[in-house]
Structure formats: structure tokens, C-alpha cells
């Protein structure tokens, strides 16, 4: 009986320690997103170019990258980028539409999960089963409130129609951390930041998958990264 008690206590301590570790890692990831603010979205880039793109982003000061799952070889890219940039950047999965995809992305090293819409099953899995940061998408106040109440760490507002729309949302929903995504560029990001948004998803304004990747284009990505980082740091 004593041995059984010791075993149960040991299992409890192991589970408790694991839970604390997961919670600490989640807080660290969330803190990094809130601090660094710019989430660079890589969607549809040729797999052979993604490592170079990620390195160019990092050189420009971007520390958060979302690789969308509707990109070719997305899971492999998440795994490779997570391994290469370990302790340097956070690599997350985007366009996560179902639990199976979320699990596979996390198994390959994704440190946060972003979806274009609010899927309770996906978010429930991410939060309850893994404890990782979950950023579901929403558009209307009703959707945003539902996502927040369900445990979203940040709610991605997609599409972010305008600065005024985010400002209007922030009026009654100032307690909910919002991440506008879509249509944000160097010309308007400061105005979006003034609304109180906590982070920003930046796609083609930073990484254009239709553009041929060359030394010159990689240098341009680095330069744009620097400009975005400076814009939200000023």
C-alpha cells in the first residue's frame, strides 16, 4: 500500500510539473507575441524558399512566423523552421481548420495555432489538450466575444476591414486582445496600433509568395521587416 501511495504521489507530481511547464511555456509564447507584435504570414511560398525567407525575416527583427497549412509541405516546413530557429523565433501554424491538422502541426513543432475562423473543437483541443497559445479568427462582435469566452488568448480579426472598424470594436470590447489581419501595411500599421490592437498579422505586405525569391528580394524582405518592427516600436 505504501508503494502504491508513493507511485500515485509520484505520478501526480510528474503531471503537476508537466502542467506547470506547459503553463510557463504558454505564458512565454503569449508574452513574446504581445511584446513583438508582428506575426509574419508565409502562405503559398515554394518550400525550397521558406528557410531563406524565415532567415531574412529574422535578420530584419521579426521573431514570430505563421506558416499556413494550405501551403505546400506545411508540416515539414513547420518542423524544419522550428528546428532551425529554436530559441530564436517562434514558429506557429496558420489556417488551422480541424483538430487533426492542429495536432499534426503541434507534433511538428508549432508553438501557437491560428485559424481564420472560430472553431470550438480546434480551440478546445489546443487549449485543453496541449495548453498552447490559440488565436482563432472572428469578425463580428458576437464571434469575438464567443471566442474570448471560450478561452482564446488573442482573437484574430479577419478580415480587418479598416482602422475605424477595429476602433469601433475596441469601444465595447476593450478587454479582449485583438490581432487585426489582412490589409495591414507600412502605410497604416501605426493607425491600427493606435486602436489598441495587441498584435498584427502581416501577409503579402511583408512576404509576397508570388514574387520570385532572389538575393535582392530577400534583402527587400529584411528591409521591410526592419520597417515594420520600427513602426510598432516607435
SSE blueprint:
Elements: H1 2-36, E1 38-42, H2 47-59, E2 64-68, H3 74-84, E3 90-94, H4 99-107, E4 112-114, H5 120-130, E5 133-135, E6 137-138, H6 141-149, E7 155-157, H7 163-170, E8 178-180, H8 189-194, E9 200-202, H9 215-233
Parallel strand pairs: 1-2, 1-9, 2-3, 4-5, 6-7, 7-8
Structure commentary:
- The chain is of the alpha/beta class and 234 residues long.
- It has a single domain (2-233), classed as Aldolase class I (TIM Barrel, Alpha-Beta Barrel).
- Helices cover 52% and strands 14% of the residues.
- It has nine helices and nine strands.
- The chain has helices at 2-36, 47-59, 74-84, 99-107, 120-130, 141-149, 163-170, 189-194, 215-233; strands spanning 38-42, 64-68, 90-94, 112-114, 133-135, 137-138, 155-157, 178-180, 200-202.
- The strands form three sheets. The protein has a four-stranded parallel sheet, sandwiched between helices.
- β1 (38-42), α2 (47-59) and β2 (64-68) form a beta-alpha-beta unit.
- α4 (99-107) packs parallel to α5.
- The protein is globular, with a radius of gyration of 19 Å.
- It starts with a helix and ends with a helix.
- The model is unreliable at 6-16 and 18-22 (pLDDT under 50).
Shape: globular
Please name the fourth-level CATH homologous superfamily. Answer: Aldolase class I
Tally of DSSP helical segments: 9
Strand order of the largest sheet: 3-2-1-9
Mean pLDDT: 91
Question: How many discrete domains?
Answer: 1
Let me know the number of strands. 9
Using the CA coordinates, give the radius of gyration: 19 Å
Low-confidence stretches: 6-16, 18-22
Helix coverage percent of residues? 40-55%
Largest sheet: 4 strands, parallel
Distance between the termini: 63 Å
Please provide the ordered H/E string of secondary-structure elements. HEHEHEHEHEEHEHEHEH
* CATH top level class name: Alpha Beta
The CATH topology turns out to be TIM Barrel
Q: Which structural class do the helices and strands define?
A: alpha/beta
Secondary-structure arrangement, i.e. CATH architecture: Alpha-Beta Barrel
Percentage beta strand: 5-15%
Amino acid at each position: 500500500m505504501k508503494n502504491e501511495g508513493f507511485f500515485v504521489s509520484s505520478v501526480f507530481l510528474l503531471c503537476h510539473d508537466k502542467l506547470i511547464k506547459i503553463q510557463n511555456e504558454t505564458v512565454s509564447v503569449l508574452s513574446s507575441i504581445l511584446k513583438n507584435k508582428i506575426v509574419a504570414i508565409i502562405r503559398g511560398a515554394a518550400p525550397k524558399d521558406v528557410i531563406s525567407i524565415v532567415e531574412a525575416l529574422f535578420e530584419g527583427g521579426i521573431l514570430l512566423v505563421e506558416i499556413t497549412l494550405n501551403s505546400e509541405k506545411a508540416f515539414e516546413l513547420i518542423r524544419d523552421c522550428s528546428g532551425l530557429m529554436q530559441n530564436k523565433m517562434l514558429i506557429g501554424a496558420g489556417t488551422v481548420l480541424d483538430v487533426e491538422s492542429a495536432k499534426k502541426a503541434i507534433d511538428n513543432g508549432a508553438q501557437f495555432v491560428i485559424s481564420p475562423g472560430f472553431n470550438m473543437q480546434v480551440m478546445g483541443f489546443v487549449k485543453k489538450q496541449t495548453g498552447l497559445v490559440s488565436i482563432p479568427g472572428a469578425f463580428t462582435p458576437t464571434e469575438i466575444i464567443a471566442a474570448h469566452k471560450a478561452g482564446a488568448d488573442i482573437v484574430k480579426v479577419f478580415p480587418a476591414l479598416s482602422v475605424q472598424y477595429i476602433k469601433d470594436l475596441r469601444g465595447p470590447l476593450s478587454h479582449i486582445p485583438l490581432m487585426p489581419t489582412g490589409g495591414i501595411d507600412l502605410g497604416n500599421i501605426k493607425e491600427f496600433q493606435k486602436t489598441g490592437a495587441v498584435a498584427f498579422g502581416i501577409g503579402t505586405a511583408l512576404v509576397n509568395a508570388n514574387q520570385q525569391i532572389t538575393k535582392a528580394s530577400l534583402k527587400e524582405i529584411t528591409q521591410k521587416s526592419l520597417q515594420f518592427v520600427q513602426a510598432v516600436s516607435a
